[in-house]
Amino acid sequence: MITVFKIMTERSTGKHFFDVFHQGGRTRGHNYKIKKLLAKKDVRRHRFAQRVVNHWNSLASSVVGAESVATFKKRLDEHWSSIKYSLV
């Protein structure tokens, strides 16, 4: 998630790594929703850019709207602990 945050806020290379929804603020949640592209083959389905989309899009806007990486990490930990996030 930290890598996705860096890419989305242009703190890292990979400017065109994800396609972002541009719906004029009419999305639920935050304004940095990522489009999940169709993956017909397992090779593409298991790539980083496909695996993180659902997790990123489910984050709260307060987490995604962090001003720095350190703030993002803190808010992400708080968010996941509040929903009892598990990596099952």
Radius of gyration, taken over Cα atoms and rounded to an integer in Å: 13 Å
Taking the sheet with the most strands, its summary is:
none
Please state roughly what percent of the residues sit in beta strands, choosing from under 5%, 5-15%, 15-25%, 25-35%, 35-45% or over 45%: under 5%
Silhouette: globular
Helical run tally: 6
Quickly give the structural class.
mainly alpha
Order of helices and strands: HHHHHH
Mean pLDDT: 79
Ranges where pLDDT stays below 50 over 5 or more residues in a row are none
Helix content: 40-55%
Count of extended strands: 0
What distance separates the N and C termini? 16 Å
What does this protein structure show overall?
Helix content is 43%, strand content 0%. It contains 6 helices and no strands.
Attribute tags:
globular, 43% helix, mainly alpha, 88 residues
List the helices and strands and how they pair.
Layout: H1 2-8, H2 42-45, H3 48-51, H4 53-57, H5 61-64, H6 69-82
TL;DR?
With 88 residues, the chain is an all-alpha fold. Helices cover 43% and strands 0% of the residues. It has six helices and no strands.
